[in-house]
Specification:
Blueprint lengths: L1 H31 L9 E7 L7 E5 L4 E4 L9 E5 L14 H15 L5 E7 L4 E6 L4 E5 L5 H12 L8 E4 L6 E2 L1
Parallel strand pairs: 1-4, 4-5, 7-8
Antiparallel strand pairs: 1-2, 2-3, 5-6, 6-7, 8-9
């Protein structure tokens, strides 16, 4: 019984330490990316290429790349990968404003936790976002139009369990959902 009590105290102290470290770490990141005394909300990490961790940057709620970041694994922070010849620059948007607005809507959906996301890949040439879930389902979004209606349709289909045994969901046509 005493061992269980000591183990419980150890787990609680460890979780408090991790919580303190994480809040301290994220506060440091947020404070280092302030402009005009406004706190910029870190959205995630944007990486160019799959095997070049030196080409990763934090990005904020405006799609502006900030300081360099390390590759993020897991689902605590959103990590968007791009395989292209794009040359990222700090303090600049990595997408044109109209495309960023649509990507931000998709990011908010992903951050809601309604999908277990394994990977997010941005294809600059076609302006598509490919999301792979932990169940290996690929969800394809186009950034060329506002995705809100397609997200609503996807949520409705997911709630009704109509997407069982699906390998791909294609939302690249406005107001239509295709799946296979």
């Amino acid at each position: 019984m005493r061992l269980v009590f000591l183990l419980l105290i150890f787990i609680i102290s460890l979780s408090v330490s991790v919580y303190y470290f994480w809040n301290n770490f994220s506060t440091t990141l947020a404070s280092s990316s302030r402009t005009n005394n406004n706190k910029i909300r870190e959205y995630g990490v944007f990486c160019i290429g799959e095997e070049r961790p030196d080409a990763c940057y934090w990005f904020d709620n405006n799609g502006v790349l900030n300081q360099k970041a390390t590759v993020v694994l897991g689902d605590v922070l959103l990590n968007i990968n791009e395989i292209s010849d794009y040359k990222p620059e700090s303090n600049k948007q990595f997408l044109e404003n109209n495309l960023w607005e649509n990507m931000a809507l998709i990011i908010e959906f992903l951050k809601s936790g309604k999908l277990d996301v394994k990977n997010v890949l941005f294809i600059r040439s076609s302006q598509d976002l490919i999301i792979t879930t932990n169940d290996s389902v690929k969800i394809l979004f186009s950034l060329r139009f506002n995705p809100q209606n397609n997200i609503a349709g996807l949520l409705s289909a997911l709630e009704k369990n109509k997407m069982q045994n699906v390998s791909q969901i294609d939302l690249r046509v406005e107001n239509k959902i295709f799946y296979k």
